[in-house]
């Protein structure tokens, strides 16, 4: 019995190289998208390139607002509503794709202007908070995106019903908190929204793949879906970090 165990141990140990890595392990398997059809892979490249462009436009909107060039968050909200409705009302084709991208860029710019006051508050409390929130958001978004893309079975599509129920609960909690002004309800809404933001990344990513397989190649619309998920995740992480920083500051003052 002991000889068999020892033999199995040394056989398993011999599978590892001198650098401590398994002979069968290959980092490229983490980015193996061969299960996706070629047209879907090309579509995803366009989606994430468009998403990166929208993120840069939102960053520009934050900078414009914080420098005082256009510091009107309420007007930015109305602007984002108008451009987003205009975007979804257009048929996506070769003639309109540039216009669709311009409308998405404008929407992202307005959203950046809208969230800039929150970022400014976080900077005043601790300049490291927005940077930390950005890094955490990027890490979480990449991890959940890879999880959705590398899963062959589209099981995350079943999250749609749960996410719809969660959205209804969040809406109810927000309405109740208008009158209750409860910190407990606020925290419940905040953390539930954080979980839902992660769920929507999984759901929307696989939904984009399914729609691309069905012939829907509107990469601007699909990138916009992921952009909203990304912004929602970033804002909630930023609020949580800001809330914790203020709580720690109060504790330090009371000592």
Automatic annotation (TrEMBL):
Keyword Mitochondrion: no
InterPro entries tied to this protein: Bax_inhibitor_1-related
Residues annotated as signal peptide: none
Swiss-Prot/TrEMBL keywords: Membrane, Transmembrane, Transmembrane helix
Any one GO cellular component localisation term in the record: membrane
Protein localization: Membrane
Broad class of the protein's primary localization: membrane
Segments traversing the membrane: 46-64, 70-88, 100-123, 129-149, 156-178, 184-203, 223-242
Membrane topology qualifier: Multi-pass membrane protein
Superkingdom of origin organism: Eukaryota
Family: Belongs to the BI1 family.
Protein name: Bax inhibitor 1
Natural source organism: Adineta ricciae (Rotifer)
Taxonomic lineage of the native organism: Eukaryota, Metazoa, Spiralia, Gnathifera, Rotifera
């Amino acid at each position: 019995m002991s000889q068999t165990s020892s033999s199995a141990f040394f056989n398993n140990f011999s599978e590892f190289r001198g650098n401590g890595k398994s002979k069968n392990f290959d980092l490229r398997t983490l980015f193996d998208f061969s299960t996706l059809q070629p047209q879907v892979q090309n579509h995803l490249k366009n989606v994430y390139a468009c998403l990166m462009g929208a993120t840069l436009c939102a960053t520009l909107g934050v900078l414009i607002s914080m420098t005082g060039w256009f510091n009107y968050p309420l007007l930015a909200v109305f602007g984002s509503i108008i451009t987003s409705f205009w975007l979804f009302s257009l048929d996506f084709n070769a003639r309109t794709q540039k216009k669709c991208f311009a409308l998405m860029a404008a929407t992202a710019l307005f959203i950046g202007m809208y969230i800039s006051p929150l970022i400014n508050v976080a900077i005043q409390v601790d300049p490291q908070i927005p940077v930390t929130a950005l890094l955490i958001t990027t890490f979480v978004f990449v991890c959940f995106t890879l999880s959705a893309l590398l899963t062959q079975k589209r099981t995350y599509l079943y999250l749609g019903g749960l996410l719809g129920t969660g959205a209804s609960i969040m809406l109810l909690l927000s309405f109740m908190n208008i009158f209750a002004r409860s910190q407990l309800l606020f925290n419940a809404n905040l953390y539930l929204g954080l979980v839902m933001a992660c769920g929507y990344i999984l759901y929307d990513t696989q939904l984009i793949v399914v729609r691309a397989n069905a012939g829907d190649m509107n990469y601007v619309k699909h990138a916009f879906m992921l952009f909203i998920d990304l912004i929602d995740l970033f804002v909630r992480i930023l609020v949580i970090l800001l809330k914790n920083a203020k709580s720690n500051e109060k504790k330090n003052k009371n000592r």
